[in-house]
Amino acid sequence: MKLIQRSMDKKVGILIAIVVVIIAAVLAVWLASTPPPTTTPKPATPSPTTTTTQPTTTQAPTVSRITIATGGIGGVYYYYGSIIASILNNYTDIRANAIQTAASIDNLLLIRDRGVEYCATTLPDSAYLAYTGQHPKFANKTAPIAILWAMYPNYLHIVTKASTGIKTIYDLKGKRVSTGAPGSGTEVNALSVLQLVGIDPAKDFAKWEKLGVQESAKALADGTIDAFFWSGGLPTGSIVELSALLKQRGDQIVLISIPDDVIKAYAEKYPGVAARGVIPASVYGAPQDAVTLAYWNFFVCHKDLPADVAYKITKAVFEHLDILQKSVAAAKDTNLKNALIALGGKIPYHQGALKYFCEAGLQQACQALSK
């Protein structure tokens, strides 16, 4: 019996030892996986006679991608903006995308409401009205824009065809007329001119349409409208195609002139925005030249776009003007000679763009930077 008791005591002892070893091992693993307790040091108590002020810095937003708001397909803005996006994608670290819009006013709203990553093509009077808050859509919140460069002159086209019998702007009364897409610079131009000649589209047109250039050209060709307004560069592709189509049908494109007194009144109402221009008959195969208003388009961005990004955009475009000019006929006027044509006007130029133009040898840019 004693032998049996000793044997059992020995087994119990061994079993207890094993259990102790297991518990010790588990504790070791648990302690190894548990981070040591942290202690928070007490903050230093400043002397009652001194105060500690941390400097505050405002970090500029980082922008590596931009969206270029342009215009409708068939207009120069869309192709101009698309080529700029291509240049930036190929020659900078900025990712760029060009989007179709209703043009100027729509573009300026995008810059205002979407922020620093937006740039745009725009007519100068639209930009002026949006920047100063004189346009209804910007009365309570203006467009925070800065010009990078002047692009090329737009010409206000009043397009009809010989078969309508329309010969002057006053003949538009009682006719079916398109004044451009809603929110476009064309619409702003058209309504301003019509107001000066005493025509109210809502009352004086037999039918008032608001179509983009491509839709307007088709409607005129199909006979659903009698005339349309369009503000664009020379030549505008949709109007070239319209002229060819009318000729095939035994008709002819006609461009209506704006009287000199109306041009003068317009220039007085919108100082520095537009001047007298001429659309040569040869551009579209019209029977005669058309006297009209010419406007210098702007390439604008949000005023808070970082200066280094504005500099990269301007540098890339002006160092690859050959690509832009080969792709867009109107871009022949995008050059160093014309880039600062709006300097000193109401809307400021972007500091990043001025830096590039100063480096390129334009002294007026250097002077503007030093102010």
TrEMBL record:
Pfam families: NMT1_3. Keywords: Membrane, Receptor, Transmembrane, Transmembrane helix. Residues 47-59 have a biased composition (Low complexity). InterPro entries: TRAP_TAXI. The keyword Chloroplast does not apply. CDD domains: PBP2_TAXI_TRAP_like_1 (cd13569). It comes from the Archaea. Residues 37-46 have a biased composition (Pro residues). Residues 37-59 are annotated as: Disordered. The chain crosses the membrane at residues 12-32. Gene3D superfamilies: Periplasmic binding protein-like II. This is TRAP transporter solute receptor, TAXI family. It comes from Pyrobaculum calidifontis (strain DSM 21063 / JCM 11548 / VA1).
